[in-house]
Amino acid sequence: MNDADTQQLAQQFWQQGYIYVANFFDSRLMNEYQDLILNHYGDTPSFTHNEEFLKKSYTEVIPWFPQREGVSPFDKVDQNNRLTALTDAILGFGWNNQYSMVMLSKAGTKGQAWHQDCPSDDDQQFNVNRLIYTMDINDNTGGQVVVRPGTHKLGVMTVGDPDEEFGDQVEIAPNKGDLIILHGHTWHKIRPTNVTRVSTNYRVAPKGVADDITDICVYRNMRYQFSTSKVIEERG
Ligand SMILES: O=C(O)CCC(=O)C(=O)O
Ligand SMILES: [Fe+2]
Q: What angle do CA 77, 144, 141 make, to 5 degrees?
C-alpha cells in the first residue's frame, strides 16, 4: 500500500463512514491471534451481559481485553506501521489509542442489531473501530458485517426495527487478515452466526474524545450503558 492508496482510503472513510481492506495482515500473525483467542475462551465461554440487554439488543457478544492482561502478541497490531499510517491519514496526527477488544459470538447466536458504538448527538465525538479478522467469515459461517454507508453524517440513528433490512446497506464478509475501519456513528450490525465467530477491535478516537465514549451505545430501540448494565433511554 503506497501513500496515494492510503490517502484514497482515508478519503473513502470520510465519504462512506467505513473502509474495507482485504489482505492487510500476515496470515501467520492472524493464526497466532486466533489460537490465543480460542485458548482464552476455552470450550464453554459464558455471557457477561444481562438478559434485558440480550433481549433488546439481539447482541450476544462476549468481550475479552487481551492487552489489559498483558498478552503481548496483541501489541503487534498496535505497532503495525501501515495501520498507523492509515489511522494518521484518517484522523490526522492527534488521536488516542483506546483499547483492544476481542469479541466472541457463539454458534447459533443472533450477532448484533443495528447500532452506533457511542452517542451520536455531536459529530465531533466518536470512536473509530479498527477491526481485525482472524478467521474467514462467509455465507457458511454467518456473522457477516452489514453497514449503511454515509450514516456517520446523519446524527442519531432513527427509531425503528432493530434488525431492519435496507436497500442501501452493504454486506461485508471479511476473510482472515482483512481489515475494516469503521466510524463509530456509522450504522452497523452483525448477521447471526452458524459457527463460533471472533473479531478483534483496536479502538481509537480523535484527541479530546473521552476514553469511555463507547460506554453508551445507541440502538434503534434504546440507549444502553455498559458500565451500569442499564437501558438509559427507551426509544420508540
Ligand atoms: O465484530 C465485528 O465485526 C464488529 C463488531 C462491532 O460492532 C464493533 O466492534 O463495534
Ligand atoms: Fe459496534
A: 95
Ligand 1 pocket mutation, candidates 199, 213, 216, criterion most atoms within 8 A of CB: 199
Q: Is the pLDDT of residue 155 over 80?
A: yes
pLDDT of residue 27: 96
- Residues 3-234: name the CATH superfamily: q2cbj1_9rhob like domain (2.60.120.620)
Q: For the residues 175-198, what does the mean pLDDT come to?
A: 97
% of the chain with per-residue pLDDT over 70: 93
What's the average model confidence in pLDDT over 55-68? 82
The DSSP secondary structure of the chain, one letter per residue, reads --HHHHHHHHHHHHHHSEEEETT-S-HHHHHHHHHHHHHHH-S-----S-HHHHHHH----EEE-GGGGT-GGGHHHHT-HHHHHHHHHHH-S-EEEEEEEEEEE-TT---EEEEESS--SSTT---EEEEE-SS---TTTB--EEE-TTGGGS-SPPSS-TT---TT-EEE-PPTT-EEEEETTS-EEE--BSS-EEEEEEEEEETTS-TTGGGEEEESSEEEETTTTEEEEE--
Q: How far is the CA of 234 from the centre of ligand 1 (A)?
A: 23
Ligand 1: which of 145, 185, 203 to mutate, judged by most atoms within 8 Å of the beta carbon? 145
Nearest atom of ligand 1 to the alpha carbon of 203: 9
Average pLDDT over residues 53-64: 75
Model pTM score: 0.94
